[in-house]
């Protein structure tokens, strides 16, 4: 009123019309109104107003468009005030990702609760005002008004709505249904309900039942456990081990990794043995699907990396076809880390400029075609030690059967018998063993020393870049000291027991 009386604001004594938005503004902005303020009486209801985009000359304004996330009535705009559009977009994505799915419907539902509370409060107020005009007075006309009358109840339910919007987890808010709206309003309207008669703000909804509605989302995780040591697990895989509700592990996952699994978590280890590989694989897949259908978080734990001869792609497709898209977590593959722990650099300038990863066991147990010789090539054979004799023989053979050539035998470059090689078993574990030999004597060495799976064969001149055999047919190195000296520096070597204690401390802290 002071601004009107002072002549700063012009009072146009007429009813508002939509055309006023584009006719009553300043001439400098083509008569577009800069701002609209709406006032109303206490009993009037605010209708729905649409925001219209109005145009004005570009030279008369400076426009900064925010990066927006829209989900029904939920509108989130992020702006960096022109300092970084890409950054604003990234922040908007990060914020939106934190919200439960379809959270706009939750906003709509809470808005409905607020509107119905407002309407009911003003309806009751209108009825009371009408009672004052009746010629006959009701018995309650002269009744003393106390703190327990309708305005106190109104204050409590609005306070309750404000508190749940402020303090409840978003996922709990998302569990409120349309039927809960009537429950809330009836609770505060009924004199017998504690929410309507007490001074405290009691929830009209059963919080425990609400939380039960938030069903866990079934998840399937394909994760690699690395070469063997718990210290070489990724943080993501370690967390998956601690939080999964069902774990399906390969037979060769080392016990120090399995020791990290909480005792309450069901563990199924693949029962693979010669002649039963496919049946055991199908058994794990069936167990995983059954658990997913119950809403479990299933961890398919593999050795090394799931996509390096771990059948990870096959399982990904299988579960996706069943309606469950897997989350894939990488692991440090033994194909590259095991040679390193054995002192074999897979590439070395002037010695080896190629790395080839092969399998020694093809589909249905058939031996795959061996790779051709290359002087600057380092070849790593996985799953090959159980048939190392057959593999070594095929590498030095000058001809090979070719199915693609109609079964005809064809020549290829053979590997010299004096080619250095190394057998690496249980890499990164305390009982790691390395057998250094040549292609000529490696079979005899494995037969004499025995097998200690899981293991692999490294072939090429790179095997003797850092360490040699000293002229012997083969040498054996026992033990693993790859992390020696790092314990006090960064605490890298964390034993299974220590990791269990750390996890228990975190769980206790979370419970408190």
Short description:
With about 500 residues, this protein is an alpha/beta fold.
Structural class: alpha/beta
Q: Roughly how many Å apart are the termini? A: 57 Å
For the secondary structure, the number of strands is: 15
Largest sheet: 6 strands, mixed
Q: Give the overall silhouette.
A: elongated
The number of helical elements comes to 18
Topology:
Blueprint (H helix, E strand, L loop, with lengths): L1 H4 L14 H4 L43 E5 L2 E5 L6 H13 L5 H30 L17 H18 L2 H5 L3 H12 L4 H4 L9 H7 L5 E6 L10 H9 L2 E4 L5 H4 L8 E3 L7 H17 L3 E6 L9 H10 L5 E3 L4 H8 L12 E6 L17 E6 L5 H8 L3 E3 L7 E3 L8 E6 L7 E6 L3 H8 L5 E5 L15 E4 L8 H4 L5 H16 L1
Parallel strand pairs: 3-6, 3-7, 4-5, 4-6, 8-9
Antiparallel strand pairs: 1-2, 9-14, 10-11, 12-13, 12-14, 13-15
What keyword list fits this structure?
single chain; 512 residues; alpha/beta; six-stranded mixed sheet; five-stranded parallel sheet; 18 helices; 15 strands; 35% helix; elongated; disordered C terminus
Describe this structure in words.
By secondary structure, the chain is α/β, with parallel strands linked by helices. It is built from 18 helices and 15 strands. β10 (399-401) and β11 (409-411) form a beta hairpin. The two termini are 57 Å apart.
């Amino acid at each position: 009123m002071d601004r009107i009386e002072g002549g700063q604001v012009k009072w146009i004594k007429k009813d508002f019309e939509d055309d006023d938005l584009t006719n009553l503004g300043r001439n400098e902005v083509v008569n577009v109104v800069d701002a609209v303020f709406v006032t109303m009486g206490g009993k009037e209801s605010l209708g729905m107003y649409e925001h219209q985009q109005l145009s004005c000359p570009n030279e008369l304004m400076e426009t900064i468009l925010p990066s927006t996330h829209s989900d029904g009535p939920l509108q989130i705009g992020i702006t960096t005030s022109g300092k970084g559009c890409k950054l604003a977009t990234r922040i908007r994505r990060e914020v939106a990702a934190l919200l439960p799915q379809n959270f706009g419907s939750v906003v709509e539902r809470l808005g409905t609760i607020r509107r119905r509370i407002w309407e009911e409060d003003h309806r009751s107020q209108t009825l009371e005002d009408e009672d004052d005009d009746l010629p006959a007075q009701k018995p309650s006309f002269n009744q003393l008004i106390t703190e327990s009358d309708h305005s106190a109840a109104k204050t409590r339910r609005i306070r309750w709505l404000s508190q749940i919007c402020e303090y409840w987890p978003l996922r709990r808010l998302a569990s409120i249904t349309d039927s809960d709206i009537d429950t809330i309003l009836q609770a505060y309207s009924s004199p017998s309900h504690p929410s309507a008669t007490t001074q405290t703000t009691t929830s009209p909804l059963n919080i425990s039942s609400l939380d039960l509605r938030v069903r866990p989302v079934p998840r399937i995780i394909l994760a690699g456990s690395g070469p063997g040591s718990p210290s070489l697990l990724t943080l993501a895989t370690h967390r998956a081990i601690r939080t999964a509700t069902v774990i399906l592990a390969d037979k060769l996952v080392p016990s120090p990794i399995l020791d990290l699994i909480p005792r309450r978590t069901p563990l199924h280890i693949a029962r693979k043995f010669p002649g039963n590989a496919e049946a055991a694989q199908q058994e794990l897949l069936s167990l995983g699907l059954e658990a997913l259908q119950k809403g479990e978080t299933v961890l398919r734990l593999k050795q090394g990396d799931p996509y390096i001869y771990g059948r990870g792609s096959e399982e990904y497709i299988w579960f996706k076809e069943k309606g469950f898209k897997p989350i894939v977590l990488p692991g440090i593959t033994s194909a590259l880390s095991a040679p390193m722990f054995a002192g074999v650099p897979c590439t070395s300038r002037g010695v080896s400029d190629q790395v080839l990863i092969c399998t020694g066991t093809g589909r249905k147990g058939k031996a795959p075609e061996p790779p051709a010789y290359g002087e600057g090539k380092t070849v790593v054979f996985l799953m090959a030690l159980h048939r190392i004799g057959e593999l070594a023989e095929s590498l030095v053979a000058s001809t090979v059967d070719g199915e693609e050539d109609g079964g005809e035998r064809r020549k290829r470059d053979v590997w010299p018998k004096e080619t250095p090689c190394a057998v690496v078993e249980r890499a990164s574990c305390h009982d790691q063993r390395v057998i250094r030999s040549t292609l000529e004597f490696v079979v005899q060495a494995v037969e004499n020393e025995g097998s200690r799976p899981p293991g692999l064969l490294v072939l090429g001149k790179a095997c003797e870049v850092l360490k040699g055999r000293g002229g012997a047919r083969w040498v054996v190195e026992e033990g693993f000291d790859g992390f020696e000296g790092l314990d006090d520096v960064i605490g890298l070597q964390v034993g299974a027991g220590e990791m269990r204690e750390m996890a228990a401390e975190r769980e206790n802290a979370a419970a408190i």
